[in-house]
Amino acid sequence: MDSIPETNVAIVGAGLAGLTLALALHARSIPCSIYELRDPTVKTTGALMLSPNALKVLDSLQVYDRIRSKGYNFTNIAFKNADEETTDLYPLGDEQQYGYKALRIYRQTLLEQLRAMLHARSIPITYGKKFHQVLSASATGVRFAFADGTSASASLLIGTDGIHSTVRKYVSPSTTPTYSGTLAITCAIPSSALQFPADKDYSVLPVAIHGTLGTFVLAPQDVDGSEVLAGTQKKYPEQPREEWDRLFAGKDKLLAMLSEDKSSWPSLVQSALGAVPKETLSIWPYYTVPKLPCWSSSSHCNRVIILGDAAHAIPPTAGQGASQAFEDAFSLALLLSKLLSSQLATSDLAAALGIWQTYRQERIDRVIALTLKLNNTRLPKGERENLDQKMIWSSERDLGELEWLYNHDIEAAVLRALGEAAGPR
Ligand SMILES: Cc1cc2nc3c(=O)[nH]c(=O)nc-3n(C[C@H](O)[C@H](O)[C@H](O)COP(=O)(O)OP(=O)(O)OC[C@H]3O[C@@H](n4cnc5c(N)ncnc54)[C@H](O)[C@@H]3O)c2cc1C
Question: Looking at the 3D structure of the chain, how many domains does it have?
Answer without folding.
Answer: 2
